[in-house]
Structure formats: C-alpha cells, structure tokens
Amino acid sequence: MKKKILAALLAATMALSLAACGGEGSETKEKSKPKEKEYIDEEQISDVFTDPEKYKGKYVKLNAQIFNGPDTEDGIAAYQAYYDIVNYSKDFIFGLEDSSFAVNDYVAIDGEITDTFEGENLMGGTITCPVIKADSVTKITYIEAVAPTTKELVSSVSAEQNGLAVSVDKVEFSDIETRVYMTVTNGGTENASFGRYDIRIIQDGKQIQQDTNSTSPYDGGYEELGYDVTPGASTSGILVFPVIDQSKDFQVVVPNVYSDDYNLKFTDFSLDIKVQ
Fold it and tell me: According to the model, what pLDDT value does residue 7 have?
C-alpha cells in the first residue's frame, strides 16, 4: 500500500511540475501561467470522501489529524489523516515536500485533489479515499481542529469568601462544546477544597452539568482544574459543558466549598456571566 500511495503522489507531483515548465516562446509562456485555484465549498467537503473523482482538480481547505506517516520517496512525504477526527473516519492521503509532521499532529491543509486511492485495509476490505497534493500544511491545536471557537467572552468575573477567590477567566463557545476557563486562588491560611465535578451552569433556570462524556479534556490536553488548593497557591483549568445558548446570560456555580479551618463557613459561589 505504501508504494501505491507514494506512486499516486509522485505521479500527481510530476504532472503538475511538467505543466508549470516551458520555454521562452509567447505561446509557452501563456500555457505556463499559474493555474487558477477553484476551491470547493465547505459544505461539499464531506462529499469528497463519497466521490473523490467528482472533485479531481479542485482545491480544498480542511483540518485533520494524522494517523500514519510519513512515508517518503524522492523528496515527497505521504501522510494518512482523518477529516472526521472525533469519529476517526473520512480518511485521506496527502503529500508534500515536508516530512516533519508526525502521527497525532493536528493540521490545516490547503491543496489540490489529484487522485483517488484504492487499496485494502487490515481486514481485507476495499478502501477508497481522496489523494491531496498539499500546497501548504500548518500544525494547529486540538481546539482549532475539532472545536473551533465561534464566540469568546474574555472579561474576568470573580468572587471571594474567607480569602478564597474563584474566577471565570474566559468562556469559549463552539459548535460541539462550551469551555469555561476557571481559576481558584487560596489567600487563606488553611487548605481549601470544592466540588470540582459538581460545578455547573445555570441558564434560563435550567441546570447544566459538565459533559462527562466529552473526550476533549483528554484528546485536547486541556489544563485540569484541581479540587483542592493549598494556602498561597492557585489552580486553573478548563471545564467542558454541552453547547448552550450563546445569546443569553448565565451563572457558573461552584458548590461544596470547605476549609480545613472548620470555623470558616462558605456558601456556593455564583458567578454571573454576561454575554453582551
């Protein structure tokens, strides 16, 4: 399979190189003008994986995660990647003159659909996927690749009780999740703890728990908020919630707050988040 993948990429590269070459005649110069790039619409990208031949010669911009490669030959590096990163599907092959990318990298690709690759998977089944000659490949983050921010609230909201300060530093909305960036700082003299996994959102009178089924914290390497904090220290992290209404205010509630100093009493922290 490796040789077939590289052969497809090398053939595409050679064809494009020959098309760009020419002599000094006016007719040749006219033929060697750079090809105008025709990009497919974003909503058509999924169709590329159903019928790659239909889009051959057109250009595409997409985000993906590499799961195989690089395989190199004659200066061309071939990679296999998933377009549907969450479901590990809609795989494709892309190549370029750069072997510095690695398995599990998240990348943004801009390139031409040059061919359709057909081969066998480990189970003996037939696989068909697009081949893309990449003009550019840029390494990006998990959030940029999987859950791009559609709206961001940066203004910090905080509250304090008995020397313990809780703040929401930022909120990021995306099409698949809501990310709440929090910091808890202990300015007291004793250890303090709180219900890390009980932190919730209240919007329109509805209680919204954290999305415990989300794989983003692990796959994206999100910073984890601790559940206790020592005197003079702080803990920060990203909490993942389901998609909520981006146009309505809400509260972030931090319950079950305790101190090793049993004389200190706390009520639940409630932080009002304004979206406008």
Answer: 56
